[in-house]
Amino acid sequence: MEKRAALLDGVRVLDGGMASELEYLGANIDGPLWSAHVLEDAPEKIVAVHRAYIAAGADCIETASYQVSSRGYAEFGLAAEQADAALLKAVQLARKAAAEFPERGVVVAASLGPFGAALHNGAEYHGNYGVGVDELVAFHRERIRVLAEAGECAPDLLAFETLPSLQEAQAIGEALARWPELAAWFCFTCKDERHVAHGELLAECAALAAGFPQTVAVGVNCTHPALIPALIGELRRASNKPVVVYPNSGEGWDAEKRCWTGKGDAASFAAQAGEWFRAGARIVGGCCRTRPEHVRMVAEAALRI
Ligand SMILES: [Zn+2]
Fold first, then answer.
1. How far is the CA of 149 from the centre of ligand 1 (A)?
2. What's the pLDDT tens digit per position in 20-41?
3. Residue 188 C-alpha to ligand 1 middle, in angstroms?
4. Which 3 state secondary structure label does DSSP give 52?
5. What gap in Å lies between CA 224 and CA 27, rounded to an integer?
């Protein structure tokens, strides 16, 4: 238990986007399983992305498993065992990169996307899944079991992220109950300065998650950076758990012109990161469209706090 409480001590900087960085390295992430394909086809590229983020200053890295689930794999005719193996492989690749920096003691978090990520239709950004809570619990329990029983391949913590609703956080708490010794964080995707994507209050979601024995931090990810200062306030009011924020770069996807718009450069992101630290965020990183340069500048901002 003390080990769990100390897990995030000294951790200030999280990594940035996996998928976009893989793309820059020339990996094909157009498939429906997104960066999960690369686990099979080009694992060395995933190690390279992890390495770049650690070199840039990340104290904690997330595995390339956001899209990995047996349900998501089944849709493409892949066996459940392949999904389970991919989850463990993602941890091994992260450990491989972390081992190259033994003095850094990098924390490896298993990225676990919400149920909507397995539907491949963007449902995680509204959370209206049309399934019962039992199905949500089963979906999450399956992946938790694989990682809980992974022995030497186990990650340091489970990063439940891009969660759109109170109901999904509740379901994960239920799914985790069998393994009280695990460590986890709960990060929500938000649509405005107070509400998660599905509409519940972020403070309500964070308070619920903070009550689970496994929870080591609560936070917000995959959200526009302009919303982050207010959301940090909501998180801090909701619980005394460390706050983790890793928003998107700030660019928006213009579906008509099929391109990214707006400002997402590392310098403006890092300037905001300084504000997030001062507002009480313990850990800052980046989500979609952030790159090692963003993380390098966040790490510099962390030193100035
Ligand atoms: Zn994102």
1. 28
2. 899 888 887 777 676 677 898 8
3. 11
4. helix
5. 26
